[in-house]
Design a protein that fits this description.
With 480 residues, the protein is mostly helical. Helices cover 67% and strands 0% of the residues. It has 22 helices and no strands. The chain is globular. It starts with 10 loop residues before the first helix and ends with a helix.
Length: 480
């Protein structure tokens, strides 16, 4: 990554217009690629995870009455305060009713906007268009589950978050206003945006070389807004149902130890995505050596980044951004999911920017060595890097596209989703509960009861899940 950052004085709107104007053929190809890869999701149904609470049974998305709009702006939905997300569902419901395909279509379009903004952000920071294009296949497919589940809309609305980072190099008063509006919109879409002030501070201080006090002063008010949203979100965590909760009794030190291992697994997921699942059950005990090895690796990585960051601040900035984007989901503030691949939707941006930037530097050195030792006297070829990068991007595009289409059908409906998930993590009680719910909703109460009875014996449900299972068994048995 080049550390010669010279932001375009004409701002984000002009940059976006120019990017679309000069790359319209590639943008059309990208649109076609996204529609081909995700288009089948339009035929998918809702899934019985959070979709019923966000859309199907949510009265907030079914009325434009002023009193209801006030509730949209103030009420918590499924332990999350995300009024802009709920409002987007209100817009969808006004157009599509309860046709699930319409909601999926909106998700696909939001994902496409995010892809364009990623390209704009990477090329704006690095002044390298090839690096921006190389980054796209990974962002398109690595965590594309966000496109299939309507309850993941809050993640897809991170376009506002990306736009706020694109305008971090603000110059005019108009850009400052635009940045703040994008930031507030991101906060009202997903609590993850609380890290935006810290990320912008890192950019200002390390990359733009803004004096420390000035960089801090610029983020005081946004930081207070983020803190307020964080408090509201923590107060909204009033229910412990769903997800995986074995970590709730762990101390902060124990959680940090487990987090070092989970973050290493996230890196592994990004480098080589394997079998994915809607839920994961990472071990929290008997992993002492894994914790020690992971902690040492992360410490060495931090030292390496600090050393390299002295010469190339963007490297340090990208590494810090990756960590900051993961902090809200590391259970320092307890949430009912210890690990999830969808948490990598945004962290994958700085991660692969670093990977491709490193690959580009290695290829440049390889090219120079070839010219010096193998082909002395030859001029530098302008086609070497684009050709090699083209092959690399095509390989990644093929792999991620194939993996996406393979996993996409899992999300066709609730029954298909939980049948698949029960083969991946059968030991998680909530997976068996959701599978039983899926069979019961299709009228097969007998099978649903058998699943729950088997789960009571074969899994280790806590008191809350055991009570839920027993209550459902009583209710569904009486129906038979």
């Amino acid at each position: 990554m080049s550390n010669q950052i010279q932001p375009d004085q004409r701002g984000l709107p002009w940059q976006l217009l120019q990017a679309v104007k000069t790359e319209w053929r590639a943008c059309c190809l990208l649109v076609l690629l996204v529609l081909i890869s995700f288009g089948m999701a339009i035929n998918f149904d809702f899934v019985n995870w959070d979709d019923p609470w966000y859309v199907i049974h949510n009265p907030l998305v079914k009325s434009w009455h002023p009193e209801n709009l006030q509730k949209v702006a103030t009420q918590v939905v499924t332990r999350n305060y995300a009024p802009l997300t709920v409002f987007s569902f209100l817009l969808d419901h006004s157009v599509y009713g309860l046709w699930a395909g319409g909601y999926h279509l909106t998700n696909i379009l939001l994902h496409l906007v995010n892809v364009v903004l990623v390209f704009l952000l990477i090329t704006s920071l690095t002044k390298n268009r090839m690096l921006g294009w190389a980054r796209r296949p990974c962002f398109l497919f690595i965590c594309s589950v966000e496109t299939w589940s309507d309850s993941s809309r809050k993640g897809l609305l991170s376009a506002l978050y990306l736009a706020s980072l694109c305008t971090a190099q603000k110059r005019s008063h108009l850009e400052q206003i635009l940045w703040f509006l994008c930031f507030i919109g991101a906060l009202l879409s997903k609590a993850l945006a609380v890290v935006v002030p810290a990320i912008v501070f890192c950019y200002d201080y390390w990359v733009a070389k803004v004096p420390f006090r000035e960089a801090v002063r610029k983020q005081v008010f946004p930081g207070c807004c983020a803190l307020l949203l964080l408090v509201i979100t923590m107060l909204a965590q009033t229910s412990e149902l769903g997800g995986v909760r074995d970590h709730f009794g762990m101390s902060k030190l124990e959680l940090i130890s487990v987090d070092t291992v989970i973050m290493s697994k996230y890196v592994q997921m990004l480098l080589w995505p394997g079998t994915r699942s809607v839920l994961y059950d990472p071990p929290t005990s008997g992993i002492a050596w894994n914790v020690v090895i992971s902690a040492m690796c992360w410490l060495l990585t931090a030292l390496l980044f600090v050393r390299m960051g002295k010469r190339q601040p963007l490297i340090l900035f990208a590494g810090a951004t990756f960590i900051l984007l993961l902090i809200p989901v590391l259970n320092l503030f307890p949430i009912t999911t210890l690990m999830n691949d969808r948490y990598l939707y945004l962290p994958s941006i700085p991660f692969f920017a670093l990977i491709f930037a490193g690959a580009m530097q290695l290829l440049e050195r390889l090219r120079d060595r070839i010219l010096v030792h193998v082909l002395p006297g030859k001029s530098r070829s302008g086609y070497f890097l684009p050709a090699v990068f083209g092959v690399l991007v095509l390989a990644l595009l093929t792999r991620f596209s194939w993996q996406t289409e393979r996993y996409l059908t899992v999300w066709r409906d609730g029954l298909t989703l939980w049948q698949y998930t029960s083969t991946q993590v059968p030991e998680i009680p909530v997976v068996q509960i959701q599978l039983a719910n899926s069979y019961h909703s299709q009228g097969d109460s007998e099978r649903a009861v058998n699943i729950l009875r088997h789960a009571l014996q074969q899994t280790k449900p806590d008191e809350l899940d055991r009570e839920r299972m027993q209550q459902k068994i009583r209710e569904w048995s009486s129906v038979k």
